[in-house]
Amino acid sequence: MNRSGFAGYHPFINFIYFTAVLLFGMFFMHPVMQGIALVSASVYSILLRGKGAVRFQLIFMLPLLLFTAFINPAFSHAGVTILFYLRSGNPVTLESILYGISSACMFVTVLIWFSCYNAVMTSDKFIYLFGKLIPAMSLILSMVLRFVPRYKEQIKRISYAQRNIGKDVSQGNIIQRARNGLKILSIMTTWALENAIETADSMKSRGYGLTGRTSYSLYRFDNRDKGFMAVMLSLIVMIMIGEANGLYSMRFFPSIKAAAITPLSFLIYAAYLGFCMLPVIQHTMEAIKWRSITSKM
Length: 297
Hints:
The protein has 11 helices and 4 strands; from the N terminus they run αααββααααααββαα. It is mainly alpha-helical. It has 2 domains: 189 residues, no CATH class; 60 residues, no CATH class. Strands 1-2 form a two-stranded antiparallel ribbon. A two-stranded antiparallel ribbon has the order 3-4. Helix 1 packs antiparallel against helix 4 and helix 2 packs parallel to helix 10. The radius of gyration is 24 Å and the shape is globular. The mean pLDDT is 83.
């Protein structure tokens, strides 16, 4: 088992971290908190996936961010600070623009965190955590979570195979391309159904979900995991203290009003930054330690 990076920690730690960071990203609308979450998620995504994450963020996430940010003022006209009027006579307010930007940041941040989750929380980790509690549901969820990357890879293989015999969606006229696309879709559907049946039969033959069934696992909650868990929970407690004191409150309508920034606010912001950047900090410290060891060899 690979014990490098944040993915090398116990699955329970991975799951708790992503659950917390996703919930914080969805409910904290304060601009400072959203900025911290968006930057941290982007940095960790690039650390996990390299150039692929950069392309994903520039090609998909950035346009989505801009589209979501600017579509809200076109439909929502609430707010007291009118900037100008559209040709239809509807006002565009500062509050609706800022709320659109905030909603867009929240949406994109959650999507990036989910991409990191899919890279770290593999299906075997999910089954390890929930296989005994909800065996059928955990199997279904693990299959759903791996659906997109696995099926994307399979459809590429089918497309390459069809291209070799001149029946890809990029070959022929419009009608032929449509027929080729339907053929690829048919092949993909057949493969998906057969794969689901084979997976179900395989799990059933192994006694998955039966009472008293034991399973071998390489995961152990060691001292390394305990130390990381203590730091993570401490930061979560500090973040929740800030929430209890209203340090993240943000109102957009009818007028903009944010919580006042106090010395405690900076402490909580630092705690949230540290929490969001925990995987990156851990990876950096591990890389420095490894370089120190190799330099002495």
